[in-house]
Amino acid sequence: MKRNKTAFGVLILLVVLAVAAWWMRSTDSLEGELSDFAFQDTASVDQLFLADKNGHQVTLKRRGDGSWSVNEKFTARKDAIDNLLYTIRAVQVKSPVGKNLYNNTMKVMAATSVKIEVYSGGKAVKKYYVGHPTMDNLGTFMYIEKSTKPFITHIPGFNGFLTTRYFAMESEWRDKSIFRFDPRGITKVRIDEYSRPDRTFELNRLPDSTYSVVSGAQSTPIPSLDLNKIRLFLSAFSETYFERIDGEMKTGQVDSIRRSAPFAKIQVKLDDGVARELTCYRKPLTASTRLQLDPVSGMPVPFDLDKFYGFMSGDSSMLVCQYFHFDRILKDPQNFTPGPDKTPAQSRF
To answer: What is the secondary structure of 37-81 as a DSSP string?
Structure first.
């Protein structure tokens, strides 16, 4: 009886030792890889590079003022940058990919993954590939460059996958602001409405911090300006956005739009010498245009009455803008005078 107990105790000990040895081998093989995806000091990250399998690449660089640039051309979306940096800091390994899923996972990642390189102090600190979500959409397949296997990752407490936080399209990273200025720094605004010359005007800030407005081709001064209305107008330039970039049109079609006559031009100048210009073109009707017929006459409308195309100075991107958003800017200069507006705010055409 005593001999049986001893044998049983030895068996239990051997099992425990075997499990411990297996756990240690498993831990040793994964150690480093389990924590390699996360980089905690995201405050020191100064550059991010992302590339997808469709040939899109984007380089995001931190500027001195804390904002980020997109391919050194545009300002990056703050929400997307913050989201990605949080993910880089918080991502954790949920589990390694099992042998039964290895081949298929690597095959899918080879075709669809996004590569990210994280730089701190000018040196690459992380390089890995972000793949597709798991079947339950609660994990994301990732693979560290030169690693032995892919892993399923997640952010603890977040019920979802992380794939959509890593993208390499320049247009998706670009901040959608057209004008984002402190109204107090604006020294000049000129609005040219070519189809309605009477709505053309120029606003200037004077040395005593008051303003002057001249209208029409003859630059006729508008007397008795309402300062509150001037301030409200200038505040529109603190947050003016485009809806999206139209990347579906062919080069020839874009060139055709640009060769057509613009209906308006908006120019803004700041006291530090910065100037920005938006040239506006009518957007032709398409199958997706919301309003196709005039509700009164029943005749086809001449162009899209909801949206127009805009081109910023020094930028070839064709921006889709909403008339509704620009009602605050494309206005009748007579509305700067005291009292009720002489022209309705939505008198667009």
So the answer is: S--S-GGGEEEEEEE-TTS-EEEEEE-TTS-EEETTTEEBPHHHH
Q: What is the pLDDT of residues 13-25, one digit of tens each?
A: 444 444 344 434 4
pLDDT greater than 80 at residue 150: yes
- Residues 89/81, Cβ–Cβ less than 8 Å: no
Tokens (6 digits) for 342: 């002489």
The burial class, CB within 10 Å (0-12 / 13-18 / 19+), for 186 is buried
Span 189-198, pLDDT tens digits? 999 999 899 9
Whole-structure pTM value: 0.77
Alpha carbons 165 and 140: distance in angstroms, whole number: 11
SS3 per-residue string spanning 169-184:
CHHHHECCEEECCCHH
Residue type for 294, please? Answer: D
Name the residue among 83, 80, 93 with its Cα closest to residue 38: 93
Q: Cα(318)–Cα(246) distance, rounded to whole angstroms? A: 6
pLDDT in tens, 63-84: 999 999 999 999 999 999 999 9
Residue 71 backbone zone (phi > 0: left; psi -120 to 50: alpha; other: beta): left
d(CA 198, CA 48): 49
Q: How far apart are CA 311 and CA 318, in angstroms?
A: 6
Q: How many CA atoms lie within 13 A of 39 on its CB side?
A: 21
- Token readout for 324 is 């509704």
pLDDT at 27 over 70: no
pLDDT of the residue at 348: 78
Q: Report in angstroms the alpha-carbon separations of 151 from 9, 110, 321, 339.
A: 38, 14, 42, 66
Distances from the Cα of 195 to the Cαs of 130, 167, 276, in angstroms?
Answer: 51, 41, 22
